[in-house]
Write a structure and sequence with these properties.
- The protein is globular.
- By secondary structure, it is α+β, with helices and mostly antiparallel strands.
- The relative contact order is 0.07.
- The protein contains 28 helices and 28 strands.
- An 8-stranded mixed beta sheet has the order 5-4-7-2-1-10-13-12. A 5-stranded mixed beta sheet has the order 15-16-17-19-18, with helices on one face.
- 44% of the residues lie in helices and 20% in strands.
């Protein structure tokens, strides 16, 4: 990726020099269909940029990544493309005060999900296009100044194949000359412009709101997907959540939705969950469910819809100056997603999901060597790409949840309202938001910011308690550990067993500061069975337990009646396991004993994921086989006990398939596929069929003909991804060699098929089979990083790291690569350092598990 990077210093210098008045972008997409050319398939991109220079006579550059440029004119002066274009930038000299740049280029369609992605549906041969730019891939589609603080209005037009529809950020349509033309946008950043084109299935609706002053706002709504998914598309539910979100944000933000229409496109082979392009939000099409899914899946989709909608204000209306302040959009959108979900939709328990799922992502990221403050130091675009992480999203959202408690809900929302009005269509930094929050709340935001936004790391809070002779609390203190103590507003809950239920009988809130804080309000309380620090999940921390509480959880975790408290305990126990403070086999025992009573389906699915991770990464190698067998037995037991047709039954069925280890397990999977075995109420639909087939393929029971036969039943884009993953999962040296070559030595596969191949290649039951690829990995990654797009590079470097080997030799090989490649790209080194940390953590967990077994 040399030459494609852009540094913060370069962006700052360019922003000081330029102001952009507008873009006119004309795309000719008719080349998307028809016979493949000999070279890369390209489309014409004609861009006119009108901009001003603060220093006439100065020099700068425009951004463009394209196979070729036909013509460049600056202020009517013809420039030689061979002289001014280097494949990534167009040099611009002798600027005037007012400038017009026209660039006529041939840009390449993408198969990596970056720029203008082109997808051919294997089901019917139809071609679908969409764009994806964040953080800096609009330059793959049109010439521009690719940085968030050079906002401008955009006017798009396009030529498209006959029978297609084209959409963009602004409203528009096809005109008599055959061109699709779209209204000018409000001033927005390059990375949130968007074009979607193809024979998409499109559904419409509308949203109307009347304000107190009598004004009426009407927003046209649209939702689209590939024609092959139309029969599965539950657009009514998408529109329901959309309208609920628009109601919520209008009621609380006092700034009407500013971008006209609101289309939502569910597109194939998407790298992200979704993208907040104003007026045309794009989502991965996996949010259209082809089979039966749980309510947790619908909750995830609703959360994403609302997350992207929050961006219309936090990110699109008001945008960070540079990626240092990415949190100003992503942390807020992540928080607002859960906030609005709980208050405006049927998913009222969204904070349980947040505590158990999103914060787990944050805790992991905050303990990596690459952890960073929420307000990060982003030197360039490669840094920016990697900082779309658990710190920026989930930790930032958790800290904002604390901020709401700190300044108060009303002041927080009033601060947001003033922030939007003061900075509409502009760019901001950290201080701009803090100043308005301090203004409305009277709180010292600078001190809060230094503790929570400008430092990295997670603290652990542990209760220490003493009792008198009558078994009443004489003192309860909270110990804080971590590199830097922070101020926490926490609730401490006391729980006791009452008629088989573990319920809270006392609670106190306190400000925890420093290494030790005594909690007032609980002295004199009866001895609890469980002390839960951070009850109600008010702060961001890792929870620890004293021995009495741990003993209670081992015996009675499933008896906790409050779903949030139960989720917090599960999360804390998982953190203990990852930190090598609890043996993996003990965590597995807790899952086997109590997961069957978990009512929250999202929490149950997380427990299944954690249990598998505990076996694969943290269990002593000599116990893995037995632990895996125990998990499979437990999964089958709960599957047979689950209510027929319930989402719990479906979840346990998927978990059983993922953990199957014995011949009897595999025979049951085969019977469910063939229809010769039945479990009352379990509907083995097409998505579940693939879930049952993959373990059979990975253990050599299903062969290529079986997999191809399943594809014949499901000859769709989704089926193709499943087929590719199953084929790569087969336990064969030849299969692994082919998969490696397809991903590492070739760029023929699309991003989605690269992802599927990597997933099948690294099956946890095949450690010995893939061991020879560990040295090949370290030989290849620097070349891969240099030659492939950053998204594919990230997928390969993360996905093929030989962490499954789980041994000291792999750790030593990783250290040797890091020592010998000090000058490798910082973003590449970061990925390897993170993988190394995960491996070292696994080894510590395995040692803990082995030591516990030896001591028993």
């Amino acid at each position: 990726m040399p030459g494609e990077n852009l540094s913060r210093d370069e962006a700052r210098e360019r922003a000081e020099l330029l102001s952009v008045e507008g873009y006119e972008v004309a795309l000719d997409l008719r080349s998307a269909v028809g016979d493949a050319p000999d070279g890369p398939r390209t489309f014409r991109s004609l861009t006119t940029i009108r901009f001003r220079s603060a220093r006439p006579g100065a020099s700068t550059f425009a951004d463009l990544i394209a196979p070729s440029v036909s013509a460049v004119t600056l202020n009517g002066r013809t420039l030689d493309p061979a002289q001014v274009f280097d494949g990534n930038r167009i040099a611009l000299d002798d600027l005037a005060e007012e400038n017009v740049l026209v660039v006529d280029a041939q840009c390449a369609y993408s198969r990596t999900g970056e720029g203008m992605h082109r997808f051919v549906d294997p089901e019917d041969g139809e071609v679908y296009l969409y764009t994806q730019y964040e953080p800096a891939d609009s330059r793959r589609v049109f010439a521009n100044f690719e940085q968030p603080d050079l906002k401008a209005p955009f006017v798009f037009e396009a030529l498209a194949p006959e029978g297609w529809t084209v959409w963009s950020n602004g409203a528009g349509g096809q005109e008599p000359d055959g061109r699709w033309r779209f209204a000018a946008t409000e001033p927005i950043s390059t990375y949130i412009t968007c074009v979607v084109a193809g024979p998409y299935h499109y559904v419409t609706d509308s949203y109307t709101r009347t304000f107190e002053d009598g004004r009426t706002l009407e927003i046209p709504l649209g939702a689209m997907c590939r024609k092959g998914l139309a029969k599965h598309f539950d657009s009514d539910d998408v529109f329901l959540v959309t309208k609920q979100g628009l109601d919520f944000f209008h009621e609380n933000f006092d700034f009407p939705y500013p971008f006209g229409k609101y289309d939502q496109a569910f597109v194939p082979e998407y790298n992200l969950g979704a993208m907040e392009n104003p007026g045309l939000v794009t989502f991965r099409e996996e949010y259209i469910y082809r089979g039966k899914v749980t309510q947790a899946a619908y909750e995830r989709r609703a959360n994403v819809i609302l997350h992207e909608m929050a961006h219309m204000w936090f990110g699109d209306l008001v945008t960070m100056v540079w990626w240092d302040d990415l949190w100003l959009k992503e942390s807020f959108a992540d928080f607002m997603g859960s906030f609005s979900l709980a208050e405006a939709t049927r998913f009222t328990n969204s904070w349980v999901t947040f505590a158990n799922n999103r914060k787990a992502w944050a805790y992991r990221a905050d303990q990596l060597p690459s952890t960073h403050p929420i307000t990060a130091d982003i030197r360039d675009l490669e840094d920016a790409k990697l900082n779309f992480d658990g710190i920026t999203y989930a930790k930032g959202a958790a800290v904002l949840k604390q901020l709401v408690a700190y300044v108060g809900r009303d002041d927080f929302l009033e601060g947001a309202r003033r922030y939007f009005k003061r900075h509409a269509y502009g760019n901001t930094r950290l201080g701009d938001l803090l100043s308005v929050l301090e203004e409305v709340s009277g709180r010292d935001m600078a001190t809060w910011s230094r503790s929570w936004l400008q430092t990295a790391g997670v603290n652990s809070l542990t209760p220490v308690v003493t009792y008198d002779a009558a078994d009443r609390i004489t003192e309860l203190a909270v110990l804080q550990e971590g590199d830097q103590p922070r101020p926490h507003r926490v609730a401490v809950g006391l729980y006791r067993n009452e008629a088989g239920a573990l319920v809270r009988y006392a609670r106190a809130e306190a400000d925890v500061e420093g290494a030790r804080t005594v909690i007032d309000g609980l002295t004199g309380s009866e001895r609890p069975d469980l002390i839960l620090v951070n009850d109600d999940d008010l702060t961001y921390c890792k929870i620890r337990f004293e021995e009495g509480s741990l003993a209670t959880l081992r015996a009675h975790l499933g008896d906790i009646t409050d779903p949030l408290a139960r989720a917090l305990c599960w999360s804390a126990l998982w953190n203990l396991t990852r930190d090598a403070l609890m043996p993996a086999r003990d965590f597995i025992s807790l899952v086997l004993a109590h997961a069957g009573r978990e009512s929250d389906i999202g929490v149950l699915q997380m427990l299944h994921a954690w249990a598998q991770s505990a076996i694969v990464h943290y269990a002593a190698p000599e116990w893995r086989e037995e632990g895996g067998r125990l998990l499979a037995e437990g999964a089958l037991h709960e599957l047979r006990l689950a209510e027929p047709g319930s989402q719990h039954q479906l979840t346990w069925a998927r978990f059983f398939a993922a953990t199957a280890t014995t011949e009897a397990d595999f025979q049951l999977l085969k019977g469910l596929l063939a229809g010769s075995a039945k479990i009352d109420g379990l509907d083995v639909d097409q998505e579940l069929r693939w879930a049952l087939l993959e373990p059979l393929a990975a253990h050599g029971i299903a062969d290529e003909s079986d997999i191809d036969g399943e594809l014949a039943r499901d000859d769709t884009a989704s089926g193709k991804r499943h087929q590719v993953r199953c084929l790569a999962a087969r336990p064969s040296e030849a299969v692994k060699a082919q998969a490696w070559a397809q991903v590492v030595e070739s760029d023929a596969l699309s991003n989605a098929l690269v992802e599927a191949t990597i997933a099948g290649f690294g099956h946890s039951s095949q450690r010995e089979l893939i061991a020879p690829y560990a040295p090949k990995y370290f030989e290849a990654i620097e070349r891969v990083w240099a030659e492939r797009s950053i998204q594919i590079g990230m997928d390969i470097v993360k996905g093929l790291f030989p962490g499954l080997q789980g041994d000291e030799r792999t750790l030593a090989a990783t250290d040797a690569w890091l020592t010998g490649h000090q000058d490798a790209a910082p973003a590449l080194r970061r990925l390897v350092l993170e993988a190394r940390d995960d491996l070292a953590r696994s080894l510590r967990g395995q040692a803990c598990d082995a030591a516990a077994a030896a001591a028993r």
